[in-house]
Design brief:
alpha/beta; five-stranded parallel sheet; 24 helices; Rossmann fold; eight-stranded parallel sheet; 3 domains
Length: 567
Amino acid sequence: MRMDQLPTPCYVIDEKKLKENLEILGDVREKAGCKILLAQKAFSCFYEYPLIGQYLDGTTASGLYEARLGKEEMGKENHVFAPAYKDADIKELGEQLGELQRVCREKKIPVMIAFEGYGAAGKGLQIGNLIQALDPRGFKVYAVKNETEEEWMHPFMWRFWTKIPEKGRIAIFDTSWYRRVMIERFEGKTPEKELEKDFASIRAFEKQLTDDGMVIIKLFLKIDRKEQKKRFEKLLVSKDTAWRVSKGDLKRNHDFKEYKAINEEMLRKTDADYAPWTVINATKKKEAKVAVYQAVIQAMKEAVARKELEEKGSLEKKTEMKRETAESILAKTDLSKSMPKEVYEERLKELQKKMEHLHGELYRRRIPVVLGFEGWDAGGKGGAIKRLTSHMDPRGYVVNPTASPSDTEKAHHYLWRFWRAMPKAGHIAIFDRTWYGRVMVERIEGFCTEKEWKRAYGEINAMEQDLVNAGAIVLKFWMQIDKDEQARRFKARQENPKKQWKITDEDWRNREKWDQYEVAVEEMLEKTSMPHAPWIVVEGNDKYYARIKVLECVTEAIEKRLKEERK
Protein backbone atom coordinates (compact mmCIF):
# COMPACT_ATOMS: atom_id res chain seq x y z
CA MET A 1 0.00 0.00 0.00
CA ARG A 2 1.27 3.45 -0.89
CA MET A 3 1.63 6.09 1.80
CA ASP A 4 -1.06 8.31 0.23
CA GLN A 5 -3.48 5.39 0.28
CA LEU A 6 -3.39 4.96 4.07
CA PRO A 7 -6.56 5.96 5.91
CA THR A 8 -6.36 8.96 8.19
CA PRO A 9 -5.66 9.56 10.99
CA CYS A 10 -2.75 7.20 10.67
CA TYR A 11 0.53 6.68 12.49
CA VAL A 12 3.51 5.07 10.82
CA ILE A 13 6.22 3.65 13.06
CA ASP A 14 9.70 2.76 12.01
CA GLU A 15 10.17 -0.32 14.18
CA LYS A 16 13.89 -0.41 13.46
CA LYS A 17 14.38 3.05 14.96
CA LEU A 18 11.97 2.26 17.79
CA LYS A 19 14.02 -0.82 18.63
CA GLU A 20 17.24 1.24 18.59
CA ASN A 21 15.78 3.66 21.11
CA LEU A 22 14.48 0.80 23.22
CA GLU A 23 17.91 -0.79 23.29
CA ILE A 24 19.33 2.49 24.59
CA LEU A 25 16.69 2.60 27.32
CA GLY A 26 17.31 -1.05 28.11
CA ASP A 27 21.00 -0.34 28.50
CA VAL A 28 20.27 2.57 30.86
CA ARG A 29 17.91 0.35 32.83
CA GLU A 30 20.50 -2.38 33.22
CA LYS A 31 23.42 -0.10 34.16
CA ALA A 32 21.44 2.12 36.54
CA GLY A 33 19.50 -0.73 38.14
CA CYS A 34 16.30 1.27 37.77
CA LYS A 35 12.93 0.53 36.30
CA ILE A 36 11.69 2.30 33.19
CA LEU A 37 7.99 2.59 32.42
CA LEU A 38 6.15 3.59 29.29
CA ALA A 39 4.01 6.72 29.74
CA GLN A 40 0.92 5.84 27.74
CA LYS A 41 -0.12 9.45 27.27
CA ALA A 42 3.01 9.98 25.26
CA PHE A 43 2.81 6.74 23.29
CA SER A 44 -0.43 4.86 22.82
CA CYS A 45 0.31 2.67 19.80
CA PHE A 46 -0.50 -0.47 21.72
CA TYR A 47 0.35 -2.84 18.88
CA GLU A 48 3.96 -2.12 19.76
CA TYR A 49 3.53 -2.89 23.46
CA PRO A 50 4.78 -6.52 23.23
CA LEU A 51 8.01 -5.24 21.60
CA ILE A 52 8.39 -2.44 24.16
CA GLY A 53 7.80 -4.88 26.99
CA GLN A 54 10.97 -6.76 26.01
CA TYR A 55 13.04 -3.73 27.09
CA LEU A 56 10.93 -1.84 29.67
CA ASP A 57 9.29 -2.83 32.97
CA GLY A 58 5.71 -1.82 32.34
CA THR A 59 3.41 1.15 31.85
CA THR A 60 2.03 4.15 33.69
CA ALA A 61 -1.43 5.54 33.28
CA SER A 62 -3.52 8.43 34.52
CA GLY A 63 -6.78 6.59 34.14
CA LEU A 64 -8.16 3.07 34.46
CA TYR A 65 -8.87 2.64 30.75
CA GLU A 66 -5.20 3.27 29.97
CA ALA A 67 -4.20 1.05 32.86
CA ARG A 68 -6.29 -1.77 31.47
CA LEU A 69 -4.78 -1.24 28.01
CA GLY A 70 -1.27 -1.51 29.44
CA LYS A 71 -2.18 -4.60 31.40
CA GLU A 72 -3.81 -6.42 28.49
CA GLU A 73 -1.30 -5.50 25.79
CA MET A 74 2.00 -5.54 27.70
CA GLY A 75 1.14 -7.64 30.74
CA LYS A 76 3.87 -6.27 33.00
CA GLU A 77 3.91 -3.74 35.85
CA ASN A 78 1.04 -1.31 35.68
CA HIS A 79 1.20 1.96 37.65
CA VAL A 80 -1.75 4.33 37.97
CA PHE A 81 -1.47 7.95 39.01
CA ALA A 82 -3.99 10.78 39.14
CA PRO A 83 -3.52 14.28 37.71
CA ALA A 84 -4.55 17.36 39.68
CA TYR A 85 -8.20 16.75 40.42
CA LYS A 86 -10.56 19.40 41.74
CA ASP A 87 -12.65 18.67 44.81
CA ALA A 88 -15.72 18.74 42.60
CA ASP A 89 -14.23 15.99 40.45
CA ILE A 90 -13.55 13.84 43.49
CA LYS A 91 -17.08 14.43 44.74
CA GLU A 92 -18.42 13.25 41.39
CA LEU A 93 -16.34 10.07 41.65
CA GLY A 94 -17.79 9.48 45.12
CA GLU A 95 -21.31 9.85 43.77
CA GLN A 96 -20.52 7.32 41.06
CA LEU A 97 -19.32 4.90 43.74
CA GLY A 98 -22.49 5.31 45.76
CA GLU A 99 -24.65 4.69 42.69
CA LEU A 100 -22.64 1.63 41.68
CA GLN A 101 -22.99 0.21 45.20
CA ARG A 102 -26.78 0.49 44.86
CA VAL A 103 -26.74 -1.18 41.44
CA CYS A 104 -24.54 -4.02 42.74
CA ARG A 105 -26.93 -4.53 45.63
CA GLU A 106 -29.92 -4.67 43.28
CA LYS A 107 -28.19 -7.10 40.95
CA LYS A 108 -26.86 -9.26 43.82
CA ILE A 109 -23.20 -8.69 42.91
CA PRO A 110 -20.82 -9.32 45.86
CA VAL A 111 -17.63 -7.27 46.09
CA MET A 112 -14.37 -7.80 48.00
CA ILE A 113 -11.78 -5.03 48.18
CA ALA A 114 -8.32 -5.89 49.50
CA PHE A 115 -5.97 -3.07 50.54
CA GLU A 116 -2.33 -4.07 50.68
CA GLY A 117 0.91 -2.11 50.50
CA TYR A 118 3.80 -0.76 52.52
CA GLY A 119 3.45 0.39 56.10
CA ALA A 120 2.38 4.06 56.38
CA ALA A 121 1.27 4.04 52.73
CA GLY A 122 -2.17 5.09 53.91
CA LYS A 123 -4.35 1.99 53.76
CA GLY A 124 -6.47 3.15 56.69
CA LEU A 125 -6.78 6.66 55.24
CA GLN A 126 -7.84 5.39 51.82
CA ILE A 127 -10.33 2.94 53.31
CA GLY A 128 -11.80 5.85 55.26
CA ASN A 129 -12.02 7.90 52.06
CA LEU A 130 -13.66 5.02 50.21
CA ILE A 131 -16.36 4.22 52.74
CA GLN A 132 -17.41 7.88 52.93
CA ALA A 133 -18.92 7.38 49.50
CA LEU A 134 -20.73 4.16 50.45
CA ASP A 135 -23.93 3.32 52.28
CA PRO A 136 -22.73 2.00 55.66
CA ARG A 137 -25.52 -0.59 55.68
CA GLY A 138 -23.98 -2.30 52.67
CA PHE A 139 -20.38 -2.96 53.65
CA LYS A 140 -18.16 -4.32 56.40
CA VAL A 141 -14.49 -3.56 57.07
CA TYR A 142 -12.12 -6.24 58.36
CA ALA A 143 -8.74 -5.34 59.88
CA VAL A 144 -6.57 -8.42 59.40
CA LYS A 145 -3.85 -8.83 62.01
CA ASN A 146 -2.07 -11.83 63.48
CA GLU A 147 -4.21 -14.96 63.63
CA THR A 148 -6.20 -15.52 66.78
CA GLU A 149 -5.84 -18.91 68.48
CA GLU A 150 -9.14 -19.98 66.92
CA GLU A 151 -7.98 -18.93 63.43
CA TRP A 152 -4.57 -20.54 63.87
CA MET A 153 -6.25 -23.86 64.61
CA HIS A 154 -8.08 -23.82 61.26
CA PRO A 155 -6.79 -24.04 57.66
CA PHE A 156 -5.09 -20.91 56.30
CA MET A 157 -8.03 -19.67 54.19
CA TRP A 158 -10.73 -20.53 56.74
CA ARG A 159 -10.85 -17.08 58.31
CA PHE A 160 -11.33 -15.48 54.90
CA TRP A 161 -13.88 -17.95 53.59
CA THR A 162 -15.95 -17.21 56.69
CA LYS A 163 -15.82 -13.47 55.91
CA ILE A 164 -16.85 -13.42 52.26
CA PRO A 165 -19.83 -11.10 51.73
CA GLU A 166 -23.22 -12.28 50.66
CA LYS A 167 -24.49 -11.29 47.24
CA GLY A 168 -25.08 -7.55 46.95
CA ARG A 169 -22.76 -6.58 49.82
CA ILE A 170 -19.15 -5.34 50.05
CA ALA A 171 -16.32 -6.63 52.25
CA ILE A 172 -13.26 -4.39 52.66
CA PHE A 173 -10.00 -5.79 54.02
CA ASP A 174 -7.29 -3.69 55.67
CA THR A 175 -4.55 -6.15 54.73
CA SER A 176 -5.94 -9.47 53.66
CA TRP A 177 -5.18 -13.10 52.81
CA TYR A 178 -1.87 -11.79 51.46
CA ARG A 179 -0.50 -11.16 54.95
CA ARG A 180 0.85 -14.72 55.12
CA VAL A 181 2.95 -14.36 51.95
CA MET A 182 4.11 -10.84 52.76
CA ILE A 183 4.54 -9.75 56.39
CA GLU A 184 4.53 -13.24 57.91
CA ARG A 185 6.93 -14.49 55.27
CA PHE A 186 9.30 -11.61 55.99
CA GLU A 187 9.09 -12.38 59.71
CA GLY A 188 9.93 -16.03 59.10
CA LYS A 189 6.52 -17.26 60.26
CA THR A 190 5.68 -18.72 56.86
CA PRO A 191 8.06 -21.58 56.01
CA GLU A 192 9.52 -21.23 52.53
CA LYS A 193 8.61 -24.87 51.82
CA GLU A 194 4.93 -24.00 52.42
CA LEU A 195 5.01 -20.83 50.34
CA GLU A 196 3.94 -22.30 46.99
CA LYS A 197 1.03 -24.09 48.68
CA ASP A 198 -0.07 -20.77 50.17
CA PHE A 199 0.11 -19.06 46.79
CA ALA A 200 -1.89 -21.91 45.27
CA SER A 201 -4.54 -21.58 48.01
CA ILE A 202 -4.81 -17.84 47.38
CA ARG A 203 -5.17 -18.26 43.63
CA ALA A 204 -7.78 -21.01 44.06
CA PHE A 205 -9.71 -18.90 46.57
CA GLU A 206 -9.89 -15.92 44.23
CA LYS A 207 -10.68 -18.03 41.16
CA GLN A 208 -13.52 -19.88 42.87
CA LEU A 209 -15.11 -16.67 44.13
CA THR A 210 -14.79 -14.74 40.87
CA ASP A 211 -16.13 -17.70 38.88
CA ASP A 212 -19.18 -17.51 41.13
CA GLY A 213 -19.70 -13.80 40.41
CA MET A 214 -17.60 -12.16 43.13
CA VAL A 215 -15.79 -8.94 42.20
CA ILE A 216 -12.31 -8.95 43.75
CA ILE A 217 -10.50 -5.61 43.70
CA LYS A 218 -6.88 -5.73 44.88
CA LEU A 219 -5.13 -2.41 45.58
CA PHE A 220 -1.44 -2.16 46.43
CA LEU A 221 -0.42 1.22 47.88
CA LYS A 222 3.20 1.97 47.09
CA ILE A 223 5.67 4.41 48.63
CA ASP A 224 9.47 4.37 48.67
CA ARG A 225 11.70 3.77 51.65
CA LYS A 226 12.53 7.44 52.16
CA GLU A 227 8.89 8.49 52.19
CA GLN A 228 8.00 5.64 54.53
CA LYS A 229 10.73 6.58 56.99
CA LYS A 230 9.59 10.21 56.95
CA ARG A 231 6.00 9.17 57.77
CA PHE A 232 7.14 6.84 60.55
CA GLU A 233 9.23 9.62 62.12
CA LYS A 234 6.26 11.98 62.01
CA LEU A 235 4.04 9.42 63.74
CA LEU A 236 6.65 8.66 66.40
CA VAL A 237 6.90 12.31 67.48
CA SER A 238 3.54 12.18 69.27
CA LYS A 239 2.52 9.57 71.85
CA ASP A 240 -0.99 9.75 70.39
CA THR A 241 0.24 8.33 67.09
CA ALA A 242 3.45 6.49 68.05
CA TRP A 243 1.49 3.28 68.75
CA ARG A 244 0.74 3.03 65.05
CA VAL A 245 4.41 2.28 64.33
CA SER A 246 5.45 -1.20 65.40
CA LYS A 247 8.89 -2.76 65.70
CA GLY A 248 7.93 -4.82 62.67
CA ASP A 249 7.26 -1.66 60.68
CA LEU A 250 10.69 -0.28 61.53
CA LYS A 251 12.33 -3.63 60.71
CA ARG A 252 10.67 -3.72 57.28
CA ASN A 253 11.83 -0.15 56.62
CA HIS A 254 15.37 -1.03 57.67
CA ASP A 255 15.32 -4.05 55.34
CA PHE A 256 13.21 -2.32 52.72
CA LYS A 257 14.95 -3.89 49.75
CA GLU A 258 14.36 -7.41 51.06
CA TYR A 259 10.71 -6.71 51.88
CA LYS A 260 10.19 -5.01 48.52
CA ALA A 261 11.43 -8.13 46.74
CA ILE A 262 8.91 -10.23 48.70
CA ASN A 263 6.08 -7.89 47.69
CA GLU A 264 7.09 -7.84 44.05
CA GLU A 265 7.20 -11.63 43.94
CA MET A 266 3.73 -11.73 45.50
CA LEU A 267 2.37 -9.31 42.89
CA ARG A 268 3.83 -11.37 40.05
CA LYS A 269 2.49 -14.68 41.32
CA THR A 270 -1.03 -13.53 42.16
CA ASP A 271 -1.84 -11.07 39.38
CA ALA A 272 -4.57 -12.67 37.27
CA ASP A 273 -7.17 -11.58 34.74
CA TYR A 274 -9.96 -12.59 37.12
CA ALA A 275 -8.36 -10.75 40.08
CA PRO A 276 -5.74 -8.24 38.88
CA TRP A 277 -3.59 -6.02 41.05
CA THR A 278 -3.74 -2.23 40.75
CA VAL A 279 -0.54 -0.65 42.00
CA ILE A 280 -1.14 2.90 43.25
CA ASN A 281 1.53 5.47 43.96
CA ALA A 282 0.50 6.64 47.43
CA THR A 283 3.12 9.38 47.89
CA LYS A 284 0.50 12.06 47.23
CA LYS A 285 -2.58 11.23 49.26
CA LYS A 286 -5.08 13.11 47.11
CA GLU A 287 -3.89 11.45 43.94
CA ALA A 288 -3.97 8.06 45.68
CA LYS A 289 -7.56 8.72 46.73
CA VAL A 290 -8.57 9.40 43.14
CA ALA A 291 -6.74 6.31 41.90
CA VAL A 292 -8.52 4.15 44.50
CA TYR A 293 -11.89 5.59 43.50
CA GLN A 294 -11.14 5.02 39.82
CA ALA A 295 -10.02 1.42 40.35
CA VAL A 296 -13.12 0.51 42.36
CA ILE A 297 -15.46 2.32 39.96
CA GLN A 298 -13.98 0.63 36.91
CA ALA A 299 -14.14 -2.85 38.44
CA MET A 300 -17.74 -2.40 39.59
CA LYS A 301 -18.78 -0.96 36.21
CA GLU A 302 -17.35 -3.98 34.44
CA ALA A 303 -19.13 -6.32 36.87
CA VAL A 304 -22.47 -4.61 36.27
CA ALA A 305 -21.96 -4.80 32.50
CA ARG A 306 -21.19 -8.54 32.73
CA LYS A 307 -24.27 -9.09 34.88
CA GLU A 308 -26.49 -7.26 32.39
CA LEU A 309 -25.14 -9.39 29.55
CA GLU A 310 -25.88 -12.52 31.58
CA GLU A 311 -29.43 -11.30 32.23
CA LYS A 312 -29.97 -10.77 28.51
CA GLY A 313 -28.49 -14.14 27.58
CA SER A 314 -30.50 -17.23 26.82
CA LEU A 315 -31.08 -20.00 29.34
CA GLU A 316 -28.36 -22.60 29.41
CA LYS A 317 -29.18 -25.70 27.44
CA LYS A 318 -29.27 -28.83 29.56
CA THR A 319 -27.10 -31.66 28.32
CA GLU A 320 -27.95 -35.32 28.29
CA MET A 321 -26.66 -37.30 31.24
CA LYS A 322 -23.88 -39.47 29.87
CA ARG A 323 -21.22 -41.31 31.79
CA GLU A 324 -17.71 -40.26 30.89
CA THR A 325 -16.12 -43.00 32.96
CA ALA A 326 -14.76 -45.80 30.82
CA GLU A 327 -15.35 -48.44 33.48
CA SER A 328 -18.07 -48.44 36.10
CA ILE A 329 -16.68 -48.08 39.61
CA LEU A 330 -19.98 -48.93 41.28
CA ALA A 331 -20.57 -52.00 39.12
CA LYS A 332 -17.33 -53.53 40.44
CA THR A 333 -18.57 -53.23 44.03
CA ASP A 334 -19.24 -56.64 45.56
CA LEU A 335 -22.54 -56.17 47.39
CA SER A 336 -22.65 -59.79 48.49
CA LYS A 337 -20.14 -59.06 51.26
CA SER A 338 -21.64 -59.66 54.69
CA MET A 339 -20.77 -60.29 58.33
CA PRO A 340 -22.44 -62.55 60.91
CA LYS A 341 -24.06 -60.68 63.78
CA GLU A 342 -21.85 -62.24 66.47
CA VAL A 343 -18.67 -61.35 64.55
CA TYR A 344 -20.03 -57.84 63.99
CA GLU A 345 -20.78 -57.26 67.67
CA GLU A 346 -17.34 -58.41 68.78
CA ARG A 347 -15.53 -56.43 66.12
CA LEU A 348 -17.65 -53.35 66.82
CA LYS A 349 -16.60 -53.30 70.48
CA GLU A 350 -12.92 -53.59 69.53
CA LEU A 351 -13.06 -50.76 66.98
CA GLN A 352 -15.13 -48.41 69.12
CA LYS A 353 -12.69 -48.82 71.98
CA LYS A 354 -9.81 -48.14 69.58
CA MET A 355 -11.63 -45.07 68.20
CA GLU A 356 -12.06 -43.74 71.73
CA HIS A 357 -8.29 -43.92 72.27
CA LEU A 358 -7.41 -42.51 68.85
CA HIS A 359 -9.76 -39.58 69.32
CA GLY A 360 -7.77 -38.54 72.37
CA GLU A 361 -4.50 -38.88 70.45
CA LEU A 362 -5.86 -36.68 67.66
CA TYR A 363 -6.66 -33.97 70.19
CA ARG A 364 -3.29 -34.14 71.88
CA ARG A 365 -1.45 -33.96 68.56
CA ARG A 366 -3.76 -31.27 67.15
CA ILE A 367 -4.70 -33.28 64.05
CA PRO A 368 -8.05 -32.34 62.46
CA VAL A 369 -10.22 -34.91 60.69
CA VAL A 370 -12.87 -34.34 58.01
CA LEU A 371 -15.21 -37.24 57.20
CA GLY A 372 -17.80 -36.96 54.44
CA PHE A 373 -20.67 -39.40 54.00
CA GLU A 374 -22.62 -39.70 50.77
CA GLY A 375 -24.67 -42.54 49.35
CA TRP A 376 -28.05 -43.70 48.18
CA ASP A 377 -31.10 -42.81 50.23
CA ALA A 378 -31.38 -45.48 52.96
CA GLY A 379 -27.79 -46.45 52.20
CA GLY A 380 -26.80 -46.54 55.88
CA LYS A 381 -25.05 -43.21 56.40
CA GLY A 382 -26.78 -42.47 59.71
CA GLY A 383 -26.17 -45.93 61.12
CA ALA A 384 -22.48 -45.84 60.23
CA ILE A 385 -22.03 -42.38 61.77
CA LYS A 386 -23.84 -43.44 64.94
CA ARG A 387 -21.51 -46.42 65.47
CA LEU A 388 -18.45 -44.38 64.57
CA THR A 389 -19.14 -41.68 67.17
CA SER A 390 -20.52 -43.95 69.90
CA HIS A 391 -17.39 -43.85 72.09
CA MET A 392 -15.98 -40.49 70.99
CA ASP A 393 -15.81 -37.48 73.32
CA PRO A 394 -18.79 -35.29 72.23
CA ARG A 395 -16.72 -32.17 72.93
CA GLY A 396 -14.30 -33.14 70.18
CA TYR A 397 -16.55 -33.84 67.21
CA VAL A 398 -19.53 -32.37 65.37
CA VAL A 399 -21.93 -34.14 63.03
CA ASN A 400 -23.14 -31.72 60.37
CA PRO A 401 -26.36 -32.83 58.67
CA THR A 402 -26.51 -31.08 55.29
CA ALA A 403 -29.97 -30.00 54.22
CA SER A 404 -31.14 -27.67 51.47
CA PRO A 405 -29.30 -24.35 51.76
CA SER A 406 -30.98 -21.51 53.64
CA ASP A 407 -31.54 -18.10 52.06
CA THR A 408 -28.36 -16.82 53.74
CA GLU A 409 -26.37 -19.79 52.45
CA LYS A 410 -27.75 -19.31 48.94
CA ALA A 411 -26.53 -15.70 49.08
CA HIS A 412 -22.92 -16.97 49.40
CA HIS A 413 -20.63 -19.23 47.41
CA TYR A 414 -21.90 -22.82 47.81
CA LEU A 415 -18.71 -23.86 49.68
CA TRP A 416 -19.10 -21.08 52.26
CA ARG A 417 -21.36 -23.07 54.58
CA PHE A 418 -18.98 -26.01 54.53
CA TRP A 419 -15.89 -23.94 55.20
CA ARG A 420 -17.62 -22.49 58.27
CA ALA A 421 -18.10 -26.00 59.63
CA MET A 422 -14.53 -27.22 59.12
CA PRO A 423 -12.90 -28.45 62.32
CA LYS A 424 -10.11 -26.81 64.22
CA ALA A 425 -6.94 -28.70 65.01
CA GLY A 426 -7.58 -31.83 67.09
CA HIS A 427 -11.30 -31.98 66.31
CA ILE A 428 -13.41 -34.10 63.95
CA ALA A 429 -16.07 -32.79 61.57
CA ILE A 430 -18.47 -35.38 60.16
CA PHE A 431 -20.74 -34.42 57.29
CA ASP A 432 -23.95 -36.35 56.66
CA ARG A 433 -24.25 -35.26 53.03
CA THR A 434 -21.59 -32.90 51.82
CA TRP A 435 -20.37 -30.31 49.32
CA TYR A 436 -20.77 -33.01 46.68
CA GLY A 437 -24.42 -32.10 46.46
CA ARG A 438 -23.34 -29.59 43.79
CA VAL A 439 -22.30 -32.39 41.40
CA MET A 440 -25.19 -34.71 42.27
CA VAL A 441 -28.59 -33.39 43.37
CA GLU A 442 -27.96 -29.80 42.20
CA ARG A 443 -26.70 -31.12 38.87
CA ILE A 444 -29.60 -33.47 38.30
CA GLU A 445 -32.38 -31.24 39.62
CA GLY A 446 -31.16 -28.18 37.72
CA PHE A 447 -30.39 -26.11 40.84
CA CYS A 448 -27.13 -24.99 39.24
CA THR A 449 -25.94 -24.55 35.67
CA GLU A 450 -23.88 -27.08 33.76
CA LYS A 451 -20.98 -24.64 33.83
CA GLU A 452 -21.24 -24.41 37.63
CA TRP A 453 -21.32 -28.14 38.39
CA LYS A 454 -18.54 -28.92 35.92
CA ARG A 455 -16.42 -26.22 37.56
CA ALA A 456 -17.17 -27.67 40.99
CA TYR A 457 -14.90 -30.70 40.59
CA GLY A 458 -11.82 -28.49 40.55
CA GLU A 459 -13.19 -26.25 43.31
CA ILE A 460 -13.86 -29.21 45.59
CA ASN A 461 -10.44 -30.72 44.94
CA ALA A 462 -8.84 -27.37 45.77
CA MET A 463 -10.78 -27.09 49.05
CA GLU A 464 -9.83 -30.60 50.12
CA GLN A 465 -6.20 -29.90 49.20
CA ASP A 466 -6.30 -26.84 51.48
CA LEU A 467 -7.60 -29.01 54.31
CA VAL A 468 -4.84 -31.55 53.79
CA ASN A 469 -2.21 -28.81 53.57
CA ALA A 470 -3.42 -27.68 56.99
CA GLY A 471 -2.74 -31.16 58.35
CA ALA A 472 -6.23 -32.66 58.16
CA ILE A 473 -7.10 -36.28 57.48
CA VAL A 474 -9.80 -36.26 54.79
CA LEU A 475 -11.88 -39.35 54.01
CA LYS A 476 -15.05 -39.61 51.93
CA PHE A 477 -17.45 -42.56 52.06
CA TRP A 478 -19.94 -43.57 49.39
CA MET A 479 -22.51 -45.96 50.90
CA GLN A 480 -23.40 -48.29 48.04
CA ILE A 481 -26.53 -50.46 47.94
CA ASP A 482 -28.47 -51.87 45.00
CA LYS A 483 -31.91 -50.80 43.87
CA ASP A 484 -33.67 -53.85 45.32
CA GLU A 485 -32.12 -53.34 48.75
CA GLN A 486 -33.18 -49.71 48.71
CA ALA A 487 -36.78 -50.70 47.89
CA ARG A 488 -36.76 -53.19 50.77
CA ARG A 489 -35.51 -50.55 53.23
CA PHE A 490 -38.02 -47.97 52.00
CA LYS A 491 -40.85 -50.44 52.55
CA ALA A 492 -39.58 -51.37 56.02
CA ARG A 493 -39.52 -47.71 57.01
CA GLN A 494 -43.05 -47.15 55.75
CA GLU A 495 -44.36 -50.10 57.73
CA ASN A 496 -42.62 -49.11 60.98
CA PRO A 497 -44.40 -46.18 62.74
CA LYS A 498 -41.18 -45.29 64.55
CA LYS A 499 -39.25 -44.96 61.27
CA GLN A 500 -41.86 -43.46 58.96
CA TRP A 501 -40.32 -40.01 59.43
CA LYS A 502 -37.24 -41.30 57.61
CA ILE A 503 -39.07 -41.84 54.31
CA THR A 504 -40.46 -38.96 52.22
CA ASP A 505 -42.04 -38.42 48.83
CA GLU A 506 -38.74 -36.92 47.73
CA ASP A 507 -36.99 -40.22 48.44
CA TRP A 508 -39.36 -41.98 46.04
CA ARG A 509 -38.90 -39.28 43.39
CA ASN A 510 -35.11 -39.57 43.65
CA ARG A 511 -35.43 -43.33 43.21
CA GLU A 512 -37.06 -42.74 39.81
CA LYS A 513 -33.87 -40.93 38.79
CA TRP A 514 -31.57 -43.75 39.89
CA ASP A 515 -29.84 -44.05 36.51
CA GLN A 516 -29.14 -40.30 36.34
CA TYR A 517 -27.70 -40.30 39.85
CA GLU A 518 -25.56 -43.31 39.01
CA VAL A 519 -24.00 -41.42 36.09
CA ALA A 520 -23.30 -38.42 38.33
CA VAL A 521 -21.83 -40.58 41.11
CA GLU A 522 -19.50 -42.40 38.73
CA GLU A 523 -18.15 -39.11 37.40
CA MET A 524 -17.82 -37.70 40.92
CA LEU A 525 -15.82 -40.70 42.13
CA GLU A 526 -13.55 -40.59 39.11
CA LYS A 527 -12.79 -36.85 39.22
CA THR A 528 -12.52 -36.21 42.96
CA SER A 529 -10.91 -39.31 44.49
CA MET A 530 -7.37 -38.18 45.25
CA PRO A 531 -4.57 -39.91 47.21
CA HIS A 532 -4.79 -37.18 49.86
CA ALA A 533 -8.61 -37.24 49.97
CA PRO A 534 -9.82 -40.62 48.72
CA TRP A 535 -13.32 -41.91 48.10
CA ILE A 536 -14.05 -45.18 49.85
CA VAL A 537 -16.92 -47.15 48.33
CA VAL A 538 -18.62 -49.11 51.11
CA GLU A 539 -20.45 -52.31 50.25
CA GLY A 540 -23.68 -51.50 52.06
CA ASN A 541 -26.28 -54.18 51.36
CA ASP A 542 -25.27 -55.76 54.68
CA LYS A 543 -25.38 -53.07 57.38
CA TYR A 544 -23.08 -54.95 59.72
CA TYR A 545 -20.35 -55.24 57.12
CA ALA A 546 -20.73 -51.58 56.08
CA ARG A 547 -20.47 -50.20 59.61
CA ILE A 548 -17.36 -52.22 60.37
CA LYS A 549 -15.69 -51.19 57.12
CA VAL A 550 -16.25 -47.50 57.90
CA LEU A 551 -14.77 -47.90 61.39
CA GLU A 552 -11.82 -49.87 60.05
CA CYS A 553 -11.04 -47.29 57.36
CA VAL A 554 -11.20 -44.38 59.80
CA THR A 555 -9.08 -46.01 62.49
CA GLU A 556 -6.50 -47.22 59.94
CA ALA A 557 -6.16 -43.71 58.46
CA ILE A 558 -5.69 -42.19 61.92
CA GLU A 559 -3.17 -44.84 62.98
CA LYS A 560 -1.21 -44.28 59.77
CA ARG A 561 -1.04 -40.52 60.43
CA LEU A 562 0.00 -40.99 64.06
CA LYS A 563 2.75 -43.35 62.96
CA GLU A 564 4.01 -40.71 60.50
CA GLU A 565 3.90 -38.07 63.24
CA ARG A 566 6.09 -40.20 65.51
CA LYS A 567 8.87 -40.52 62.91
